[in-house]
Structure of Endonuclease V:
Amino acid sequence: MKYKFVHSFDMSPKEMIKIQKQLAKEVKLSHFSDVPNLVSGVDLSFQEDEGLAVIVTMDFKKLSVIDVTYAVDKVTLPYIPGLLAFRELPIFLKAWEELEIEPDIVFFDGQGYAHPRRMGIATHASFFIEKPTIGIAKSKLIGKYEEPGKKKGEFTFLYHKDEKIGIVLRTRDNVKPVFVSPGNLVDFDNALDFTYHFATKYKIPEITRKAHLYTKSLK
DNA sequence: GCGACAG
DNA sequence: ATCTTGTCGC
């Protein structure tokens, strides 16, 4: 991978923020014009000081699971809003090394561009795996938005300091929306289209939902 | 100073 | 994220 991960335990929050600001300069919200073939969804679960990361790979068109990979490791950092990537990426990257498949896009459970420094976990991860990424969060971290219509498919944009940073998407009728944002190497249209493609009958799009289901059953 | 705050 | 039963609503 292009970037080496600096272990979080010998870093202070200030140093982590410095790294985020540096990486943020390299974010490219460019359009991904191909139709994805294989995509992966990532989710983690924790117990005590151990974390489990699961990567589920699906066929984009068939919406079928074709591979499940995971890794377990000790966690060294507590959850700190804005610094989630430093807590979860080390374990994810361990699982990523086990992956024998090359997905076209990788979805994360959390924010992408919709972050104080535009470096949510999905965006941050892209610099290590060098793949387009998208963030699907169950709640927002920052920003303001108008409530989207109550029907599935309706959406509004999330803004921060007058800049569009994400999409508030209704994936089911009368159910709280999810917060979608491009991670890196995809644009807002891609993030919305690709995520909505996985909005079947549940609030959480199938790609991340499947990962979450495996994360629970594997422990 | 106060409120907000991904997982 | 995690700890957890019943319960309201489509």
Notes: Residues 31-137+182-217 of chain A form a domain with the archaeoglobus fulgidus dsm 4304 fold fold (CATH 3.30.2170.10).
